Amino acid sequence: MINYFLFGLGNPGKRHLNTRHNAGYKFISYFFRTCEFKPKGFNFLFAQKEFFIGILPLIFMNENGKIIVDLKNFSSFDLKNLIIFLDDLNLPFGAIRFRKKGSDGGHKGLRSCIYYAQTDEIMRLRIGIGFNYDIPAEIYVLQEFSEDELFFLEKKVFPYIEEGIEKFLKEGMIDKFENYINNFNREGLKPRQKE
Question: Taking the model in full, what pTM does it have?
Fold first, then answer.
């Protein structure tokens, strides 16, 4: 069986936990919510759930890529089995997109990962955080999600991604996982009100 490394980009600490920039970090925290994260060196925390290893950074976003170098200490690590989860302000809030490779799209955390991996052939799942053109991007991404946005992520977006991981990644079916994730957006663009 393949061990997938699921790496949630973000900034460490409570101050950053609910910020838009930590959307990837929040998903990994959600997916491994029943597991205990343990420190591995000084740069990251990890948890294991069946065939999946969750990675959360202890270093700031712009240096998250350094962790890829450290992951090589895991005997089961292969860059081909790494999936990075990150925020994307170019996607509408709540939209998600999976790609097997590509540019950093202006995201400095992903840029750092590509730099340290020395390749842009890294799978990534982007979580849309929307954008407010009245606010500079570097300020917008460090703002916290609203209560309704968090509710939508945790009740709609994250469970959908989790289901895709359980249905397809567990069996190593990357192409089906890609199709499943990219089909979400037809209905996932607007936050829903609490029931």
Answer: 0.93
Residue owning tokens 């509408």 = 92
DSSP category for residue 192: P
The dihedrals phi and psi of 153, each to the nearest 5 degrees, come to -60, -45
d(CA 47, CA 4): 12
Look up tokens 């490779």; give the residue. 101
Please give the distance of CA 161 from its chain centroid, rounded to a whole number.
Answer: 10
Helix (H) or strand (E) holding 138: helix 137-140
**Residue 100: band (very low, low, confident or very high) from pLDDT cuts 50, 70, 90:** very high
Closest Cα partner for 170 from 56, 81, 101? 81
Catalytic residue among 21, 108, 124, 126: 21
Cα 99 to Cα 83: distance, rounded to the nearest angstrom = 10
Residue 16 falls in the annotated catalytic set: no
d(CA 147, CA 11): 20
Token pair, residue 29, equals: 């925290």
Q: Beta-strand (E) ranges in 32-160?
A: 38-40, 44-49, 52-57, 82-88, 96-99, 123-128
Distance of CA 17 to the CA centre of its chain: 13
pLDDT tens column, 140-157: 999 999 999 999 999 999
